[in-house]
Amino acid sequence: MTEVSEILMSVLSTIRVPRPGDRVHKDECAFSYASPESEGGLYVCMNSFLGFGSKYVDRHNAKTGQRAYLHITRIRKTQKEDDSNSGSGDPPKKKPTRLAIGIEGGFDVEQEQYEEEVNVVLLPERLEVTSEDLASMPDVVKERVSLSIAGLQAADSVSHALQVQQWDGEVRQESKHAAELKQLNNGLKIPPSGWRCEVCDLQENLWMNLTDGKVLCGRRYFDGTGGNNHALQHYQQSGYPMAVKLGTITPDGADVYSYDEDDMVLDSKLPEHLSHFGIDMMTMEKTERTMTELEIAVNQRVGEWEVIQESGTTLRPLWGPGLTGMKNLGNSCYLNSVMQVLFTIPDFQTKYVSNIDKIFGEAPSDPTQDFKTQVAKLGYGLLSGEYSKPAPDPGDDPNASSESRGDQVGIAPRMFKALVGRGHPEFSTNRQQDAQEFLLHFINMVERNCRSGLNPSEAFRFLVEEKIVCQQSQKAKYTQRVDYIVQLPVPMDQATNMEELQEAERRRDEAEASGAPYPSVVRAQIPFAACMAALSEPETLTDFWSSAVQAKTTATKTTRFASFPDHLVIQIKKFTFGLDWVPKKLDVSIDVPDTLDLSALRAMGQQPGEELLPEVAPPPLMTPDVEVKAPVLDDSTVSQLCEMGFPLEACRKAVYYTGNTGIDAAMNWVMGHMDDPDFSAPLVMPGSSSGPGTTPTESIPEEHLATIVSMGFSRDQATRALRATNNVLERAVDWIFSHLDDLESMDVSEGGRSEGGSEASREPPPGPRVRDGSGKYELFAFISHMGTSTMCGHYVCHIKKDQQWVIINDQKVCASEKPPKDLGYLYFYRRVVE
């Protein structure tokens, strides 16, 4: 004991008490998915407050010399539904009564399911200091260590703070119509029971309009149950905005819906409004489930395998390396699906998992904020198999086996999600997102963090060649841009079951008119070949400014592959907007093939005898004065483009190169040049060697140069970035990261040009690094979306592993019996090696 006391005294200065703003990682290891619930528990450094599993705490001790750690272990409580709860001292488990989290009556939070034990451990000896040991130590030691322990226990962990801990789905706003709601004096009195829909005689899911007292059925649900939309149709015809759900009226209130506000609302005058139609709230009893109870029932079923099982078959759970599930952190299924697919690709495995020891060894002092570390941690967690084992019995049903349900321990990528979403307006939230947008966001992060060495995103990178032919002169213009995803249009007019679709639409209209149940949904069958034809067919440009004829004319644009990537991602453009600009999803079935040959779409470049459009800008507008150095630009057009979010210099160039011919032509120029390396670079005007806003090197702030150079860029690259952004540091940093490929091979001197010769004598810089090869591919994965738009719904992925299709739905990993390849959203192909 004396030895332990002496060690603690010697390291007392390294033991800190958490202060407001300190990041405390007491739920998850910085290098693995070990937690206090894991075998061996979690060790929290009492100086940096970083958490480490048993496997990595010795590494941290050896690297930093830190010796004092708080060892936290949690043991799952045995949950009992018995109301008497004999001997446990805990109240019986209550069913949720509110659609809420962390609020009385809401869903319980996970921490309540564990008993926690903490002790101080001294490394490298792993000497344990219990609370009893601490009590007998000198006061100065006892006080400092006790305060640190108490502070760590009281502090919110980072992962806890990142979650929505208190969320109340029942918080409703007072309707704007409630105070002044007009009610018709039509003498109508509603009985206390025995209601029926006035149109279809339905006896459940009934709503009474609070303006005229009409009793009508509610909305039809996605599965055909519910009502027949008669209450909604009545609002659309009458404009009467509010309705109350019959059967939910009690002395405490009722469910009130505002069609105009499209939400459940509060009605402070509900007793008065109900009394108008003879309903006394104080005598009413609840006979129907409230909307909250219906939503709670749905939330309690979230994650059940039956929701997305394939054709009702019983799916066989799989376990082992590469078969690890991921916990849903609240609408994070889009992230889970994308990362599962990415770590089946050798480039990502090699970059992050094969080099994991090197990455961890070079990690900064706070590895939780290091991109490479967190991606490597995620990849190892998915591929190692360490977390691919049945989850502990939740205790709700002692006879239920988690293995039979397919539930896994899995991994909870909280640190990873927080890091990749940091600062992003969408991915930093718990809202549902578009998997395609997240894939591009993650690829962009990989690009930024792989300026040297292997860049796994090159597996997806390819060049697109766009050929524009002026129909008047027949001269052509060729441009290339980098892309990572092929967006495949869905030509609905090419459906092979058009007659069946028209008949289904006719039956649906009849059912809506008569109030009969809707017929079963008929899905449009679109040939994959028709989608490819829509992608490759020439596009007509009606407002093209031709440098050959110096006027606007018609042109055709053809898009082809200038290179074929190792791995091809195809997005089916299912998501679109309706006539009311509400996002919607096309319900289509596409016969996506297992093998694909795109060789016919290979770009051929300039053909023999083909003339190119001259690289000449429209003539500058002149005034009666002598030569005008700067063109006279239409300020209103420039302003309109800037208001759309485009860079000022790009807007100026768009107006200049389209000869002040209007917003449409300028917008076409912007859309056609967004991927140009110098898109946002200053406009260089005739007779000048630099654009407006550029400055000689001497005037570039030295501190801005130093900041960018410290990020690993050369002084010349930093100079070019600052010149392109008028010396605004934040814009320069964004600019340089969006021009990495161009900067890799740039040859710029302090004056902006090579000192060895003129611009014309220089070799053009090589393009971005792309891999190329055969255009033949085989399907190895696809991500599917269920729901009406990207803002809601659920994602799952199917991956072909060892010639067997596997379905991964968050924490559940099973052998797929009938992979729905015709209903996917993102398809992943790998090149066939011949």
TrEMBL record:
Residue ranges, annotated region (Disordered): 76-98, 386-408, 747-773
GO MF entry, a single one: zinc ion binding
Reactions listed under catalytic activity: Thiol-dependent hydrolysis of ester, thioester, amide, peptide and isopeptide bonds formed by the C-terminal Gly of ubiquitin (a 76-residue protein attached to proteins as an intracellular targeting signal)
Binding sites annotated in the UniProt record for substrate: W207, R219, R220, Y221, F222, Y257, Y259, D262
Keyword Transport set for record: no
Protein family per UniProt: Belongs to the peptidase C19 family.
Residues given in the record as Zn(2+) binding sites: C197, C200, C217, H230
Record keywords: Hydrolase, Metal-binding, Protease, Repeat, Thiol protease, Ubl conjugation pathway, Zinc, Zinc-finger
Pfam families in alphabetical order: UBA (PF00627), UCH (PF00443), zf-UBP (PF02148), zf-UBP_var (PF17807)
Source lineage: Eukaryota, Metazoa, Chordata, Craniata, Vertebrata
Domain UBP-type: 173-281
Active-site residues from the entry: C333 (nucleophile), H794 (proton acceptor)
Protein name as annotated: Ubiquitin carboxyl-terminal hydrolase
Domain UBA: 632-673, 699-739
Organism: Triplophysa tibetana
Domain USP, residue spans: 324-832
Enzyme Commission identifier(s): 3.4.19.12
GO biological process: protein deubiquitination; proteolysis
Annotated CDD domains: Peptidase_C19B, UBA1_UBP5_like, UBA2_UBP5
